[in-house]
User: What shape does this take?
Amino acid sequence: MKKHIVIVGGGFAGINLVKSLVNDKRFRITLVDKNNYHFFPPLIYQVATSFIEASNISYPFRRLFSNYKNVNFHMGSLVKVNPESNSLETDTGNLQYDYLVLALGTESNFFGMENVQRCSLPMKTIEEALYLRNYMLLNLEEAARNKDIKEAQKLQNIVIAGGGPTGVELAGMIAEMGTYIAEKEYREIKLSLSNIYLIDALPTLLSPMSKLAQEAAYNKLKKLGVKIILNVAVKDYVDGKVILADGKTIETETLIWTSGVIGREVPGIPEESVGKGRRLLVDSYNKVEGTKNIYALGDIALQLTEEKYPKGHPQLAQVAIQHANNLGENFKRIEEEKVLNPFKYNDKGSMAIISKFNAVVDLPKFSFKGFLAWLTWLFIHIIPLVGFRSKVRLAFTWLRLFITNNPSIRLILRPKKDTSEH
Assistant: This one.
């Protein structure tokens, strides 16, 4: 009998686990995801800023799996795991499994701030990125019509909470778009009233990265006109005012939230198997503690057994990919009754783009910045994209846009069901 492996989540971990077991006749694989496409999160901020289309970083699962004889796709959202009966409930049906792999990733963490959760703009999914794009474009149009200087400024002000790679990349992109595009196309707007604020509770930007990367990001964003506020957390967002921990306020209609993540909830998993940040506690082989055949990969997994990472591995794409490859090999070793390989993370470094032709790269033994780092960033971010067509299309799109400084996809699209009779 083929072993049925059900994988929940089609991100880096899920996709790479599928690839590691593809066309192996000993396994039948079902990938479960609420979307019908895989997408590339590191570039989602470029969708939100109208720089690239969502289709540049997305690829349909069924197209991806069309040549994989042992892989099926089930579109649905996880409702509950039933470890006793080896079954998974989704909102579109139930599945039986021999092995269950949870690779759901994370969602935005609002740290219990209800107003921030309700009114801010997160950017974790394609839908959220497209909503943010429309929202900012609509605010620009309203600001262009508004004769009240105070209201116009409130519409133009943008506050980004979170000084990690996403916040830094987003701030740099928005600042450059204002320079290259807003001056030409929104002549009614007084750009002197526009402000971009980047706020973080920590003392530095890009806190997990090197001092060189932190200083390069800070200096370049300052040069672009971004107002950087460090050592202060966002505490609330009321009536169009961002309230900071030091009591100061910033009037804005746009609070973008990139300030933390928390593991997605998995109903049915024992409470004692859930650790800090709602991540699932796993052993050296990524098996969820307290279960016999349930595994967790990527951002949602918390492994405390590797000596070098006593607080768990960083929530990075490379960890998810390496998790998947190791577990795929171990599934084969289980079938062959061989000794399993414990997971050990190979740190390949981290990077962030700051602005046009300017990035920072931290490798295990050295760091560098500037144009070479920017080229490295582009190269590294094209390689993992699924599908040859996506890579070629994105490479040409980037080349054209960085030369012309004029992305032409600033379309305000608000799809809704047409209820009129035809």
Notes: Residues 3-108+261-335 form a domain with the FAD/NAD(P)-binding domain fold (CATH 3.50.50.60). The mean pLDDT is 91. The first strand starts at residue 3 and ends at 8. Residues 165-185 form the longest helix (21 residues).
